[in-house]
């Protein structure tokens, strides 16, 4: 995510962070590099001009702080201005105090992932905010659009409002869905609208009519992050007709540039509320500008890692594992297999490592080795073992190693490596996972 921008900016700021003295010349050189990095990231020109102007103004007028070198102070300024450009505070959906049903309407161009975002948002509201959610599709034009949303709703465990796309108009469908949401006391009604262009007067008139009828508390514009600054201009055009309250950026995991994320807030004045970071239904993250700024500058996002862990590992499973390690109970290969599956559900090693501070500073050759092949090989080896071997790995002798290697398509050396890794992991019982997690939070 934003790989090119992260690499360029982190490299530029590393060159100045150790400077004991800032001069007009090295500030000028660094600012020029930052400007080039933002241009290559397809950030809108007005955003770049404003960003660079504020960085230069603050750098020249910064007070002396003995805790930082001048170079470190400059990096701190760049990070602070980057957070401002991204939108400062996170204003993801907060439904506290909103009388049910809270109506949330999603709009956008065709093909940007609107329907998928409705499914992901429904999953987020059900799992993270414990809301009863009803979803409805007003897209009677795209073939199988209604069926797609119905399938996604069943997949994530939220309710779907059935309609007749032939006999009913989009306005009729949404009106009836709202009545049902009120009658059955749903907390939230998510409305998926048909994709349309701002120049399509007929379709825009339809969406405006739907908006006027249901009076949503949130009107969210869904946009493809990979379209760069065009995404921001499209959102601006929509906002002139439809009163948008926020944005969902989709396909962020495939966006190496970051132009959309850095341009939308400045051009539209609307907060990015969520980011789609993968194909799975749980791959929707609230947008935290301060965390994303840290990632872009190569400073990592440890808080997101901790939240991913807390979501993925069920409380009772986490407590069981913590007790095992703290009490000195054995940590066997069956336990390791469970943790491997959790890691895969969190997006795998690559996703996890990208959020660690300093990862982007590692050589490209090292970064390329941090892929999911490692955990896939470990999983294959463990699956080739008997139940007794998983619980008592000390019984795995030479002949057993040959059998396990052959069954997994691996080598005996791979079996030895896995057993050695298990020994290393088992040493964690001296400190316990609870202590490790506490230390991580204290350092953030």
TrEMBL record:
Keywords: Coiled coil, Cytoplasm, GTP-binding, Hydrolase, Nucleotide-binding, Ribonucleoprotein, RNA-binding, Signal recognition particle. GO terms for biological process: SRP-dependent cotranslational protein targeting to membrane. It is found in: Cytoplasm. Its main location: cytoplasm. GO terms for molecular function: 7S RNA binding; GTP binding; GTPase activity. Residues 299-326 form a coiled coil. It catalyses: GTP + H2O = GDP + phosphate + H(+). GTP binds at residues 108-115, 250-253. Signal peptide: none annotated. Transmembrane segments: none annotated. Residues 101-298 form the SRP54-type proteins GTP-binding domain. Its EC number is 3.6.5.4. Gene3D superfamilies: P-loop containing nucleotide triphosphate hydrolases, Signal recognition particle SRP54, nucleotide-binding domain, Signal recognition particle, SRP54 subunit, M-domain. InterPro entries: AAA+_ATPase, P-loop_NTPase, Signal_recog_part_SRP54_M_sf, Signal_recog_particl_SRP54_hlx, Signal_recog_particle_SRP54_M, SRP, SRP54, SRP54_GTPase_dom. It is an enzyme of class 3 (hydrolase). Residues 1-86 form the Signal recognition particle SRP54 helical bundle domain. One of its GO terms (cellular component) is signal recognition particle. Pfam families: SRP54, SRP54_N, SRP_SPB. Residues 100-233 form the AAA+ ATPase domain. Part of the signal recognition particle protein translocation system, which is composed of SRP and FtsY. SRP is a ribonucleoprotein composed of Ffh and a 4.5S RNA molecule. Composed of three domains: the N-terminal N domain, which is responsible for interactions with the ribosome, the central G domain, which binds GTP, and the C-terminal M domain, which binds the RNA and the signal sequence of the RNC. PANTHER family: SIGNAL RECOGNITION PARTICLE 54K PROTEIN SRP54 (PTHR11564), SIGNAL RECOGNITION PARTICLE SUBUNIT SRP54 (PTHR11564:SF5). Belongs to the GTP-binding SRP family. SRP54 subfamily. Involved in targeting and insertion of nascent membrane proteins into the cytoplasmic membrane. Binds to the hydrophobic signal sequence of the ribosome-nascent chain (RNC) as it emerges from the ribosomes. The SRP-RNC complex is then targeted to the cytoplasmic membrane where it interacts with the SRP receptor FtsY. Interaction with FtsY leads to the transfer of the RNC complex to the Sec translocase for insertion into the membrane, the hydrolysis of GTP by both Ffh and FtsY, and the dissociation of the SRP-FtsY complex into the individual components. This is Signal recognition particle protein. The gene is ffh.
């Amino acid at each position: 995510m934003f790989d090119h921008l992260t690499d360029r900016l982190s490299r530029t700021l590393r060159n100045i962070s150790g400077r004991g003295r800032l001069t007009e010349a090295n500030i000028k050189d660094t600012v020029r590099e930052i400007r080039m990095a933002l241009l290559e990231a397809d950030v809108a020109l007005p955003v770049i001009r404003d960003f660079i102007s504020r960085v230069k103004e603050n750098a020249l007028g910064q007070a002396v702080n003995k805790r930082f070198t001048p170079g470190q102070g400059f990096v701190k300024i760049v990070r602070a201005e980057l957070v401002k450009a991204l939108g400062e505070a996170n204003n993801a959906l907060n439904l506290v105090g909103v009388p049910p049903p809270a109506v949330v309407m999603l709009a956008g161009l065709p093909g940007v992932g609107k329907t998928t975002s409705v499914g992901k948002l429904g999953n987020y509201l059900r799992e993270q905010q414990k809301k009863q959610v009803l979803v409805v599709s007003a897209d009677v034009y795209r073939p199988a659009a209604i069926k797609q949303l119905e399938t996604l709703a069943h997949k994530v465990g939220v309710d779907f409002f059935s309609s007749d796309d032939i006999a009913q108009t989009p306005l009729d469908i949404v009106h009836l869905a709202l009545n049902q949401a009120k009658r059955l006391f749903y907390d939230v009604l998510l409305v998926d609208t048909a994709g349309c262009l701002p120049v399509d007067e007929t379709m825009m008139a339809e969406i405006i009519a739907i908006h006027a009828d249901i009076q949503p508390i949130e009107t969210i514009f869904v946009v493809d992050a990979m379209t760069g600054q065009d995404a921001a201009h499209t959102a601006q055009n929509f906002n002139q007709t439809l009163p948008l309250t926020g944005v969902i950026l989709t396909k962020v995991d495939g966006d190496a540039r970051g132009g959309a994320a850095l341009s939308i807030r400045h051009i539209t004045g609307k907060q990015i509320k969520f980011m789609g970071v993968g194909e799975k239904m749980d791959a929707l993250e609230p947008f935290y500008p301060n965390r994303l700024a840290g990632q872009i500058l190569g400073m990592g996002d440890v808080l997101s890692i901790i939240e991913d862990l807390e979501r993925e590992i069920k409380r009772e499973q986490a407590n069981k594992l913590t007790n095992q390690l703290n009490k000195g109970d054995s940590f066997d290969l069956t336990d390791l297999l469970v943790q491997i599956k959790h890691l895969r559900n969190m997006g795998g090693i690559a996703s996890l490592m990208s959020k660690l501070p300093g990862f982007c500073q590692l050589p490209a050759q090292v970064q390329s080795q941090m892929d999911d092949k490692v955990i896939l090989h470990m999983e294959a080896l463990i699956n080739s073992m008997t139940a007794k071997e998983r619980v008592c790995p000390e019984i795995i002798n030479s002949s057993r190693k040959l059998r396990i290697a052959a069954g997994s398509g691996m080598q005996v050396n791979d079996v030895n490596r896995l057993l050695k890794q298990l020994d290393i992991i088992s040493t964690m019982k001296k400190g316990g996972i609870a202590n490790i997690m506490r230390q991580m939070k204290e350092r953030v």
